[in-house]
Amino acid sequence: MKPPVLILSLAIASPLALAAPPAVDPAMLELADQSRCLTCHDVDETVRGPAWRDVARRYRGKPEVEEVLVTKVYEGGGGAWGNDYMSANKRAGLDNIRILVRWILSLP
Ligand code: HEC
Question: Do the annotations mark residue 41 as ligand-binding?
Answer without folding.
Answer: yes
